[in-house]
Amino acid sequence: MKLLTLNFLTCARKTCKSTAAAFPLHPKEAELEQVEMELNPLFVKNMLPRLDWEAMKTLATELGLPNLPAETPVAEELANESGEPTQTLRDLHTLLMETAIASGKLVCGNCGHEYAVKEGIANFLLPSHMV
Ligand SMILES: [Zn+2]
């Protein structure tokens, strides 16, 4: 699953839905893979304002990836004067679109439940007593 996806996921338990601690989910024993994708500057640019940047920073740190800028990059940092994508934009593309968790676990910071990720797919089904 793409790291971008993690920015839109929270614990599936009802009791966790409204708690801040359930977001973002924390990767554990995560194995990363790089999946090459064509650069779509407009997509990255449009996605940025919708991201929870603090959650992205936490994720990058927890995965041992290079630190992200303190603030969400603004449009001027994404393209140079002739409209070419900047390194910042390319780095974001690599992080959000091309870096994926191949296997491991996603842990809820509130209830501690661990969701398994296998072959790039997270299983969010809960045992019936936890729903
Ligand atoms: Zn939870």
TrEMBL record:
UniProt subcellular location: Cytoplasm; Nucleus
Keyword set, alphabetical order: Cytoplasm, Nucleus
GO biological process: rRNA (guanine-N7)-methylation; tRNA methylation
Protein name: Multifunctional methyltransferase subunit trm112
One Pfam family, short name: Trm112p
Presence of keyword Cytoplasm: yes
Lineage: Eukaryota, Fungi, Dikarya, Ascomycota, Pezizomycotina
Recorded coiled-coil stretches: none
Family: Belongs to the TRM112 family.
MF-aspect GO terms: protein heterodimerization activity
Keyword DNA-binding: no
UniProt organism field: Salinomyces thailandicus
